[in-house]
Amino acid sequence: NPSGLDMEILAAVVSGTACTLKHTDKEIPWKRHLVLIERGKLDLVSGASFTEERAKYAYFIGPYRAEYLALFVKKGNTAKYKISKFSDIESMDFKIGVDLGATYGPMVDAVLKKIGDRTKTIDNIELNRKKVLAGRIDGYLSYLPDEPMELKKAGIDIEMHPMSLINTGDIYIMLSKKANSKEVRDALQASFDKIKADGTLSAIFKKYSEKYGVAQW
């Protein structure tokens, strides 16, 4: 079964309802997640940002944390790239990896559009890591707290660039409207409100803060 911060929060939310949680047995790229949610082939997904387009086909439960975006480069290369804010890459010969179907907020999305073919789209975060290590891209965008946790666990020679972090907004559990009723949405939201009020959510954050030294939630 998948594990980690978001999965633990999701399990806590679902356990407070009459629903049961069953994970898929395959890894699904993010863009396909969205298509399957829209078509009602998946019930829900965690770690989702709210957009008006997604709200046409999904309910949103939460929000359960904020999300921060950072730039990741090969270990030892941070001094090579003089970047204090993300828009600095517009004037640099910097190739950057991004996830297919992801939205990074208006500012970042606008910069990525401006730099054109220097934006390299992939459908698996592991490909970005391999490309950075091989020198095929200079860096990639990914999220806190997930990416530092994964890099530390795997012992990969990639580090977070010290540029200013980008707050991309609140994060939700996204529930397919086609596969679920509003009553299911209300039950999940009520369960979330309960674990937030009774300290369960804070306890989960504390556990991961202590384990990985991450403070951005």
User: Number of helical segments?
Assistant: 8
What's the order of the H and E elements? HHEHEEHEHEHEEHH
Distance between the termini: 23 Å
**Helix residue percentage:** 25-40%
Shape, principal axes of CA atoms: globular
> What is the averaged pLDDT score?
92
**What structural class do you assign from the helix and strand content?**
alpha/beta
Strand content: 15-25%
Radius of gyration in whole Å, from Cα? Answer: 18 Å
The counted number of beta strands is: 7
Q: Mind summarizing the main beta sheet?
A: 7 strands, mixed
**Unreliable residue stretches:** none
List the helices and strands and how they pair.
Layout: H1 5-15, H2 30-39, E1 44-49, H3 52-55, E2 58-74, E3 96-99, H4 106-115, E4 119-122, H5 125-134, E5 139-144, H6 146-154, E6 158-160, E7 166-176, H7 182-197, H8 200-212
Parallel strand pairs: 3-4, 3-5
Antiparallel strand pairs: 1-7, 2-5, 2-6, 2-7
Helix pairs in contact: 1-7, 1-8
What does this structure look like?
The structure is a single chain. With 217 residues, the protein is α/β, with parallel strands linked by helices. The protein is built from eight helices and seven strands. It has helices at residues 5-15, 30-39, 52-55, 106-115, 125-134, 146-154, 182-197, 200-212; strands at 44-49, 58-74, 96-99, 119-122, 139-144, 158-160, 166-176. Strands 1, 2, 3, 4, 5, 6 and 7 form a seven-stranded mixed β-sheet that branches. Helix 4 links the parallel strand 3 (96-99) and strand 4 (119-122). Helix 1 crosses helix 7 and helix 1 (5-15) runs antiparallel to helix 8. The longest helix is centred in the last third of the chain and has 16 residues, at 182-197. The chain is globular, with a radius of gyration of 18 Å.
